[in-house]
Amino acid sequence: xxxxxxxxxxxxxxxxxxxxxxxxxxxxxxxxxxxxxxxxxxxxxxxxxxxxxxxxxxxxxxxxxxxxxxxxxxxxxxxxxxxxxxxxxxxxxxxxxxxxxxxxxxxxxxxxxxxxxxxxxxxxxxxxxxxxxxxxxxxxxxxxxxxxxxxxxxxxxxxxxxxxxxxxxxxxxxxxxxxxxxxxxxxxxxxxxxxxxxxxxxxxxxxxxxxxxxxxxxxxxxxxxxxxxxxxxxxxxxxxxxxxxxxxxxxxxxxxxxxxxxxxxxxxxxxxxxxxxxxxxxxxxxxxxxxxxxxxxxxxxxxxxxxxxxxxxxxxxxxx
Length: 320
Prior knowledge:
Elements: H1 3-28, H2 33-61, H3 74-98, E1 103-104, E2 114-117, H4 130-136, E3 141-144, H5 156-171, E4 176-181, H6 183-195, E5 200-206, H7 222-225, H8 238-245, H9 249-252, E6 255-260, E7 278-282, H10 294-305, H11 308-318
Parallel strand pairs: 2-3, 2-4, 4-5, 5-6, 6-7
Antiparallel strand pairs: 1-3
Helix pairs in contact: 1-2, 1-3, 2-3, 5-6
């Protein structure tokens, strides 16, 4: 089953639940239809709100210490929570259930093309905020749906290799940039372990559990098991250890890991710190919001723009 199908089923269940609550309210509480509708929809939204809050609570139990410069007060914490909740609602209830993988080629681009890889339980719709920014900057890009939904991360390598080769051919580029959220960052590293990193100018990961997350224990599938970690100071799973052990320093130097000290899915949050890579930390941003927050997206675009000069020089050498 694809994430698109699963999310549509979840939306159907939520709609039926809202309808049942509304019908019961009209029958037993004699509410007007608009009052019953508001009650039904509000009840579903409240459950989603509580689920989101529970994620923050579970992540807090396994949280790493937050550096002073990234600590936030109650007001900013409330804004962070609302941003994460509203972004999650928009992404899972509208963007991803309707999304299809897409490719946009800008023949006049001065940047390497960008391949976008989503995280666990998501699809191409996750990139609804970054893709328009890439279009505005005339940067060729493609999204890829990593399926099966609960499959082995290693098995995504063949799909990524095919998508990367196709994007480079369509854009007329020797190298590309990979931007990956959460599990997608691990899938990109697993792909480079098999196919090499020569085609990768830069890998930018967002909230990727490079050393695992305690919350993966609640996930389903082989891929969730490959992201598990036992406690804050406990060991990461064997798959992550093997992935790190097969990664040369030259590959690490091509990786930028962007993460939040308040991530509500990756815990401990410092699991996203990758030795030998360029690590960029934020505060006050949730896990899903990493792909939509303006500050984070500005950092992503900065990493992409930093490779523009090198791409132009490489293209000029190929034409001579």
